[in-house]
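During the reporting period the student researcher (J.K.) took over the structure-prediction task from the postdoctoral fellow and processed the backlog of single-chain submissions. One of the processed entries is reproduced below for the supervisory committee.
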Amino acid sequence: MKNSKKKIDDLSLEELHNLYSVVNEICGEFSRMTDNYSLTTGDNKFENLPSDVKSMINDRQKFVSYKLKIKDALINKVNEEMSNYE
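J.K. obtained the following structure tokens:
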């Protein structure tokens, strides 16, 4: 059986919007978690991170990159859709 991956550009505008909303929410949660870590520990430069916090920050960065990719795809999809109306 062949593994067929969906391309982000093949998603509908609604699918992209839903995916962006979910990823944006996850990014927000990661931001709150890192802010809370900084406030509770006083480590606002993130110099003494435990391994679980380092892992969380890596996950956060991964999701931020997803968010940027989805945002680009959303912009392209909206431009494509709007070209049908001009």
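The committee noted the following: DSSP finds two helices and no strands in the chain.
J.K. will present the remaining backlog at the next meeting.
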